[in-house]
Amino acid sequence: MGLLDNILTPDGGDWGGVPWRVLHLVGYTRPDELKSLGKHLRAIARLGVNKIILAIDYKFRYQTDPDLRYGEDYIGASEAHDFTLQAKKFGIEVIPQFHCISHQSWNEHTFPLLSKYPEFDVTPGLYPNNDGIETREWDPTNPKLYPILFALFDELIEAFDSKAFHIGMDEIFLLGSRNATFFSDCDVDEAFARGITRIYNHLAGERQQQVLMWGDRLVCGRAHPLGISFSCKDGLSNAIHQIPKDIIICDWQMKRRKDFETMAEFVEEGFRVLPVSWKDIGAIEDSLRYSTLTNSPSIIGRVFTTWREEEGRPDIYGPLIDGVKLIKMYAHK
Fold first, then answer.
1. Among 58, 144, 172, 220, which one has the highest count of C-beta atoms within 10 angstroms of its own C-beta?
2. pLDDT band, residue 218 (cuts 50/70/90)
3. How far apart are CA 280 and CA 166, in angstroms?
4. Which helix (H) or strand (E) holds 146?
5. Alpha carbons 85 and 91: distance in angstroms, whole number
6. Cβ proximity of 266 and 249 under 8 Å
7. Integer Cα distance of 80 and 89 in angstroms
């Protein structure tokens, strides 16, 4: 009997009947990395996972604007297509992710969009070498940004034959700062909502994609003082009332808590919600207990994140396996 045979059914189980059983992965953007991941898809499916969110960003062999490729040895359409076909054999849907607004740099390296088009920067000319900031961000009110951006999205949609698309939107810190400069005159919540809605309209309307995003910037830090990474006090959270309700909110709350009231708040606002877990098993159980008690059909599953700690083997990643055990336990309560 194998490692997983004592906790899983042959088809991986359905996590208590929820439709979205998601694994979020980063760092599989070289051909050899993606090919290696493909070898573990059968085991990942046996854990009950039926969707993989794959962070891509600029690590793709874009054809519409090759200048927007970052680094070397990135995947292209052929590798994405092969991986997608392989995933489908095991009942897994691949969801590409492209970080929007935030995460436009890493340390001193600014990513290609703002390097080539600095006029889209929301803090133009500030923070040389990206000193003193988490990451650079773009201005969501600049209309010239979107044709360039959507061309990249469309390539990813075609390459992965996707039905859903994750737009990031986490850890946005500059947009609501006093140093932000908008192309259009508006309040910070309106600027944020405009960016989300503009992207949603292209993805959900023109490309028929289900749109997902992280929820941390939609959480009011005054009502929910959860810390800078899990809530905000700069006005962005007011965008929660202005964006399309068809967006699935990935509620990124990864620490142990007595309750997970943000989950209930998103449901009350009319959104479908995917609670997000990481490596804290206690936090996973706390979140499961809360979602079980909430018992809302708007809580449609769960996302397990790894943030590279799985070291290329998500199929044997401890927090995922332990989390599945807990899910099966709570499903039978």
1. 172
2. very high
3. 23
4. helix 145-160
5. 10
6. yes
7. 15
Q: Can you tell me the distance from the alpha carbon of 62 to that of 224, in angstroms, rounded to the nearest whole number? A: 40
Phi/psi at 191 (5° precision): -60, -45
Contact in structure between 134 and 173 (CB atoms under 8 Å) = yes
For every residue of 204-219, DSSP letters joined together read: IIIS-PEEEEE-GGGS
State residue 2's pLDDT score.
Answer: 39
Is the C-alpha dihedral spanning 240, 236, 265, 211 positive or negative? positive
pLDDT, the chain, mean: 93
Beta-carbon contacts of residue 108 (< 8 Å; ≥ 6 apart) = 129, 130, 131
Residue 312 DSSP one-character state: T
pLDDT in tens, 225-284: 888 888 899 999 999 999 999 999 999 888 888 788 999 999 999 999 999 999 999 999
The DSSP bridge pattern shows strands 105-106 and 109-110 to be antiparallel
Question: If DSSP codes are grouped into helix, strand and coil, which group holds residue 107?
Answer: coil
d(CA 211, CA 42): 26
Q: How far apart are CA 239 and CA 69, in angstroms?
A: 31
- CATH code of 20-331, in short, is 3.20.20.80
- Give residue limits of the domains in the chain: 20-331
DSSP annotation of 299 reads B
- What's this model's pTM, rounded to 2 decimal places? 0.95
